[in-house]
Amino acid sequence: MNEYGDISRSTAGYIMPGFMMRALPYLVLEKYLDMKELPTNSSKVALFRRYEALEKAITPLTEGVTPVGKSMRYTDVSCTLQQFGDYVTLTDQIADFHQDNVLQEYTKIIAEQAAQTLETLRYNVLKAGTNVFYANKVVGRSNVIAALAKADQQRVVRSFKRQNVSYITQQ
Q: Could you report the per-residue pLDDT of 59-70, keeping only the tens digit for each?
């Protein structure tokens, strides 16, 4: 059951469409995420499993002989779930007597903040990754003094191809 704090279900249902319309333009990384839902009362730690690619099968098969076969390899990646949030105060007097539709305006501003917070947190996780390329082959982010050149892009693409990185084909 969804909890809506101290607002009614009908108000929450009314606010959410406007909330999402204001938030969506900020959620650029959203479409590339693999969202998983944890069962209620299960854990604060989510475990993601990445299966490794198999080596190429370049040995011809022999009639009547079962090949040796391979074992699947995988890497587990865990993350501890955290909550982030904020609130704004809205008194009954402001809601009742203000000339603007304050609840709608508050919803829009909170939607922007929520989306920007999510996007920043997700970007920081991506940025902290270990697979990093820097312009002009420098060794650290602080040493980058030039813009990305075509040769840098080509180096990244070659590296991705060597690692069999898949293309992003869905939007």
A: 999 999 999 889
Q: Where are the alpha helices (DSSP H) in the chain?
A: 9-23, 92-97, 102-127, 150-162
The helix, strand and coil proportions of the chain, stated in percent and rounded to the nearest 5, come to 45, 10, 50
Cα–Cα distance measured from residue 3 to residue 14, given in angstroms and rounded to the nearest whole number: 15
Which tens digit of pLDDT belongs to each residue from 91-135?
A: 887 777 777 777 778 888 888 898 999 999 989 988 887 778 888
- Backbone φ/ψ region at 5: left (φ over 0), alpha (ψ -120 to 50), beta: left
Q: What is the pTM of this model?
A: 0.65
Distances (CA, A) of 148 to 91, 96, 144: 51, 54, 9
Q: Is 23 exposed, middle or buried (0-12, 13-18, 19+ CB in 10 A)?
A: buried
